[in-house]
TrEMBL record:
Region (Disordered): 1-24
Name of this chain's protein: AAA family ATPase
Keyword field: ATP-binding, Nucleotide-binding
InterPro entries per UniProt: AAA_16 (IPR041664), P-loop_NTPase (IPR027417), TPR-like_helical_dom_sf (IPR011990)
Organism, as annotated: Streptomyces evansiae
Pfam families: AAA_16 (PF13191)
Domain Orc1-like AAA ATPase, chain residue ranges per copy: 36-203
PANTHER family, per the entry: TESTICULAR SOLUBLE ADENYLYL CYCLASE (PTHR16305), TRANSCRIPTIONAL ACTIVATOR DOMAIN (PTHR16305:SF35)
Keyword tRNA-binding part of the UniProt annotation: no
Length: 906
């Protein structure tokens, strides 16, 4: 961070906290001393010392919690004072009336500094993440895109991490986190998890009581991560209350009066300060005989009593305070005056009264309430129609300033529903802006509020559709509910939006593992349409979902219908190209002919590239279609094209800041292509990272099954059997499997693991069930699902005849499919259940095929097994070299040990 940026962060943070109460008891409490906070300040001093003494190592998190008025903000002010001389201090504060403003606290931390820069400086400051985080921070136009919310959060974490490392040492103060917007809470939770490696001191203040839902979960997570935990601020004791009383009234304040101050306030610092100040203002003497007046004065410190005290300042002062409460943040005297509909000089007079009464503080261009309790009381004291009118006027002022619907939306959300189409239109526009910056939760609030207005009959379905789309990346159950409502309304969706809604509904159902419902939804809509592009698109979606349905009832019939529809197509539009991809995947999975599968894939592309409308971030077709395209290439031995396709996906998603489910899919398949190529070390790392991404999206999602299966397959290839077992146990990878297919085949991988563990009976049961399922599905690709070979190995000791039949079936299927990998692997598997010279001849042929295959691990395995059967030192040496280059440590160990022993080798 530049020197100017650092100073900007300091200045901005200071203004956020404002002054402490400026006279009377407030002055006493706001001085250098803090009453009964020695333990907390010791923790602060130790944390600042650890931060500044060495920039290596990790950071730390301190969380201070407690009820309203307990002194959290004052404590953070003291943290700021102690840290400022040694570190840069960034700060932000939540607010009750701005909790719907996305990224509000993150913007407070960074925006002031970034806005002081030129656009070029800001772009350099944010680096490659500028286009992703710039819109979220309000310093760049998002354009018309919809941002991936997970990607925006991850990019913000990355940016802040880089900035604090460059500006070390940095202390980040975040006050009133219980009022943080959901997007900031997402960021804060993610950033806190990086503190083991990010050298920064993060200090958070919050109220635990009253939080619900996701906010309560986030707050609990922060409290649990803090070290030490349990920093809940306690009320002042009688001694501290007495000292504070005597600091206000003098050393002669009587003990009885001091005890009553403590008893009335319960030791709450805010209440104590306010009570003592009012007692002085009202001429109360600090003697026990006048202590009875304290309870009445204390009632004026909160709620209606506080509002009555402001009312006593006059109608003008009350109106100005109400306007400030509605504005919430970014309160300036000119803006509050306009909202109150009063001249600026008159507003200045009322502001002076509010300052003197310790209601508002700060400069005319940066006003705050002295305490959030005051803002809450003033805002909630207004009658609904008055509050609505002020929020409506505030929304107009925001729009007039050119800041747009998203900035105005927090005021629009406060309006009482009134059947106003203009409000509906503004809320829809605000939702689009929120989605463009990666804030689907804010978009959801706007669209749900728009439904309450309610929209006109012709618009209602459109709003429900937009709400369903807004929740697609974050809440699939809500997506299903809203899209079904949009489709079922009498004045429902028409044209392209309706087709899109059906496709998105089916996609959400698939991701919820409700695949049969997804297919039924598409079929019902397709039956209502005449021949044409829309019907063909739905037919394509139908075949796509049925193609990944693991429990088909009519696989042969489905395949025949798909072939009849797709084979004549030339690929003139996206629907035709989609059908060609689906046909290619079907040909591959059924093991019909690899060259035909590849030719169909190539016909779906334009000069070897994805055509417009079928890109990784295009929305007309879900990414599952492109996964099927890549899968057809992978299992047809065209790993070069699969690698290019999935690497492009990874680059596109990273460049555009996507880091949720989509990035996990791309990462997984890039890793699995490396597994097929025999680059096992790289594959393992990529698949573990993909699994980490999947874990953040949810548990036991279809994506999990694929990644766990791919990673287990990779670990088994490396010889890491126990690690593969632990992985599958951790993710409960066992039957019943999901309704969607798993790539590679789940039963084949788990059966192989069980066999490696010596659990032969369980392996046979698993593989027999897998064989039944594959036969029903019509899948005969022996590379995608090598069940026959694994089952043959399992049954060979007790039933060699059955084993011979199984490997013969696998050989016929492999020869029909025709790839070097399929044929070579089928020969190797046949050799594994054969003996003597016949086994050696099978392995010799297997090696010949596999050395022309792109799958180096399979080649290495065949070489080693050939060397073992023939006792050939030369073949074992070649196999050992290949196994080591692949990272197949178990296979390499076997070859090396045999070579070292040397018995019978020639």
């Amino acid at each position: 961070m530049t020197a100017n940026a650092r100073q900007g962060a300091h200045d901005h943070g200071e203004s956020l906290y404002g002054e402490a109460p400026g006279n009377g008891a407030g002055a006493s409490y706001s001085g250098e001393a803090l009453w009964e906070r020695e333990r907390e300040l010791r923790l602060v001093d130790e944390a600042i010392e650890r931060l500044c003494e060495d920039r290596e190592g990790g950071g730390s998190l301190l969380v201070f919690s407690g009820v309203a008025g307990i002194g959290k903000t004052r404590l953070l002010q003291e943290v700021r004072r102690r840290a400022t001389a040694r570190a840069a201090v960034w700060s932000a504060r939540g607010g009750q009336t701005v909790s719907s403003v996305p990224f509000n606290l993150v913007r407070q931390l960074l925006q002031h500094s970034l806005l002081a820069m030129t656009p070029e400086e800001a772009r350099a400051y944010l680096g490659e993440r500028h286009d992703v985080v710039g819109p979220a921070l309000g310093i760049a136009d998002p354009g018309g895109r919809t941002a991936d919310p997970r990607g925006v959060i991850d990019s913000l974490v990355s940016v802040v991490t880089r900035l604090v490392q460059a500006d070390w040492p940095v202390v980040i103060l975040v006050d009133d986190v219980h009022w943080a917007d959901p997007e900031t809470l997402d960021w804060l939770a993610a950033f806190a998890k990086t503190l083991d490696s990010t050298k920064v001191l993060l200090v958070v203040a919050l109220r635990e009581d009253g939080a619900t839902g996701r906010t309560a979960q986030y707050l609990k997570s922060l409290v649990d991560q803090a070290r030490p935990a349990g920093n809940r601020l306690q009320p002042l004791g009688p001694v501290a209350a007495a000292e504070l009383t005597r600091a206000t009234f003098g050393s002669l304040a009587e003990d009885g009066f001091c005890r009553e101050v403590w008893a009335v306030t319960g030791g709450n610092p805010y209440d104590t300060v306010e009570l003592l100040s009012k007692a002085r203002e009202n001429g109360v003497r600090a003697v026990e005989s006048e202590a009875g007046q304290l309870r009445g004065l204390n009632a004026a410190s909160r709620g209606t009593g506080l509002v009555e005290r402001i009312e006593a300042l006059g109608a003008g002062a009350l109106n100005l305070a109400r306007s400030a409460a509605v504005l919430g943040t970014d309160i300036t005297l000119p803006l509050a005056a306009r909202l109150s509909d009063m001249p600026l000089d008159e507003a200045a007079t009322h502001l002076a009264r509010l300052r003197a009464a310790r209601v508002l503080t700060g400069s005319d261009d940066d006003l705050q309430f002295v305490h959030p309790l005051i803002a809450t009381a003033v805002h909630e004291s207004m009658r609904p129609f008055h509050r609505t009118a002020l929020h409506g006027r505030a929304a107009d002022l925001v729009m007039e300033s050119g800041r747009g619907p998203a900035a105005a939306s927090r005021h629009l959300l406060q309006l009482v529903p009134d059947d106003d189409p203009h409000v509906v239109a503004q809320l829809r526009a605000a939702a689009r802006e929120h989605l463009a910056v990666g804030a689907p939760e804010a978009a959801r609030l706007c669209l749900e509020r728009a439904l309450l207005e309610p929209p006109a009959p012709g618009v209602h379905a459109q709003v429900s559709y937009e709400l369903g789309c807004a929740t697609l990346l974050t809440d699939l159950s809500s997506t299903v509910r809203h899209l079904r409502a949009a489709l079922e309304l009498p004045d429902g969706l028409r044209g392209k939006d309706r087709i899109d809604a059906v496709c998105r509904l089916s996609q959400a159902l698939v991701h919820l593992d409700r695949l049969r419902e997804a297919v039924d939804a598409v079929d019902r809509e397709a039956a209502l349409l005449d021949e044409g592009p829309d019907r063909m698109r739905l037919q394509g979606v139908h075949f796509m979902w049925e193609g990944i349905f693991a429990r088909e009832n009519d696989a042969e019939g489905r395949s025949a219908r798909l072939a009849a529809l797709a084979d004549p197509l030339t690929g003139r539009d996206t629907s035709e190209r989609a059908l060609l991809i689906l046909r290619a995947f079907d040909v591959m999975a059924r093991g019909e002919n690899a060259e035909q599968a590849v030719e169909l894939c190539d016909r779906a592309l334009v000069n070897g590239q994805l055509p417009p409308g079928l890109g990784w971030t295009d929305t007309e077709w879900s990414f599952e279609l492109l996964v099927m395209l890549g899968g057809a290439y992978i299992f047809s031995d065209r790993l070069d094209r699969a690698s290019s396709l999935f690497t492009e996906a990874l680059d596109v998603y990273r460049r555009q800041g996507w880091s949720g489910n989509h990035l996990g899919v791309a990462q997984a398949f890039v890793g699995y292509v490396k597994r097929r190529r025999g680059q096992l070390r790289d594959a393992r790392g990529l698949l573990k990272e993909a699994l980490r991404l999947a874990d953040r999206v949810g548990s036991r999602m279809p994506l999990h099954w694929d990644i766990v299966c791919m990673l287990a397959d990779t670990l088994l290839a490396q010889g890491e059997v126990r690690e593969a077992e632990e992985l599958m146990e951790r993710y409960a990878f066992r039957p019943p499997y999901p309704d969607v297919i798993v790539l590679p085949d789940a039963a084949a991988v788990r059966g192989r693991l069980l066999l490696a563990l010596g659990r032969r009976k369980e392996a046979i049961d698993e593989l027999e069930a897998g064989l039944v399922s594959l036969t029903a599905r019509g899948w005969h690709n022996t590379v995608l699902a090598p069940v026959h070979g694994e089952l043959a190995l399992a049954v060979a000791p007790e039933d060699p005849g059955r084993a011979a039949e199984l490997v013969a079936t696998a050989r016929r299927a492999a020869e029909r499919f025709g790839t070097d990998t399929a044929i070579g692997e089928s020969l190797r598997q046949a050799a594994a259940v054969s003996e003597g010279q016949y086994a050696a001849s099978l392995l010799a042929r297997a090696v010949t095929y596999l050395e022309h295959s792109p799958c180096s691990y399979e080649h290495a395995r065949a070489r080693v097994e050939y060397g073992l059967v023939t006792r050939s030192r030369k073949e074992l040496d070649r196999g050992l070299t290949l196994a080591r280059s692949c990272g197949a440590t178990g296979l390499a160990r076997l070859a090396a040990t045999t070579l070292e022993e040397g018995r019978g080798l020639y």
